[in-house]
Amino acid sequence: MSESEAKAAFRAVRFADNGGEPFCPHCGADAVYEFKSRAIFKCKACEKQFSLTSGTIFASRKLYFADILTAIALFVNGVNGVAALRLSRELCINYRTAFVLTHKLREVFGAMATAEQLTGVVEIDGAVVGGSKRLGNIGNKGKSPRTPKNGKERNVVSLRERGQGGRTLTFVVGHEKDALGAILKHVHSSATVVTDEAAHWNVLHLHFDKVHHVNHSQEWSQRNGVHTNIVESLNSRLRRNHRGVHHRISPQYLHAYAAEVAWREDFRRTSNGQQFMMVLGGAARQPISRDWKGYWQRRGERPPKQPRERTPRPEPIVLDFRPRV
């Protein structure tokens, strides 16, 4: 795509609700006109100017539209995710630009998560991400490589709805038992819950009629179809995303990476073209990101400016040089 073709494609998706014709993102009026000298519009109703990306997650962008569409295509094509460093090399852009762009797309993934309660058979399991250091090769024989911690260990608890078109929700908590409130909120009381043999999941019997446990120390699944293999595949994808692609994920942004993996798991059977259009359409409808707009220009909150106390001026000294009589 040339830049003009990419711009026309983004314009068709951005104003798809109005048949491709521009409308004002401020007041919603469709009586607008386009400047010939600049690629902006002006509303005749509120007399405000706007561009193709105004009011979207790509607001105040500096990238070409062709680079944005290419970045979306490369990002959705990664089965286990795409590192920002790789994206910056393939697009010949700065790493910081690629880092913010990928997190904006992850914010779009998080916005696509279902808001309805999960029903049917819901599998629940947690995965530990980060927080461990590798031991040295000398003097550490027989010790577990996960013994030392650095305080950055987090648990990603995943709720996976079984069946075709099943939905996935992820939550980042300090311990698996801390996700009980999220489970009660997002899983319908009539659902059948399947977990592993961890003792902290026994409290689910008080809230759900059907709760099954699989003792993984003895078997992977039971003969009656009770298993957690689907949510285990999600955890496997999360581990590959962490260890094989990014290598290190900050706990501050772990929820965004988990939402990305959940989206990839939900739409793994969807073609790349459909995934591309879904993400592009979601990005065109996603409002301005409060976390990632101007990320590298942010500064810490400054204390309120106190009024300066002004000291009174001293009385002027008048010198009299007149001769005395």
Automatic annotation (TrEMBL):
Full protein name: Transposase-like protein
- Disordered: where is this region? 298-325
Compositional bias segments (type: Basic and acidic residues): 298-313
Q: Name one Pfam family in it.
A: DDE_Tnp_IS1595
Q: Describe the location of the ISXO2-like transposase domain by residue ranges.
A: 117-266
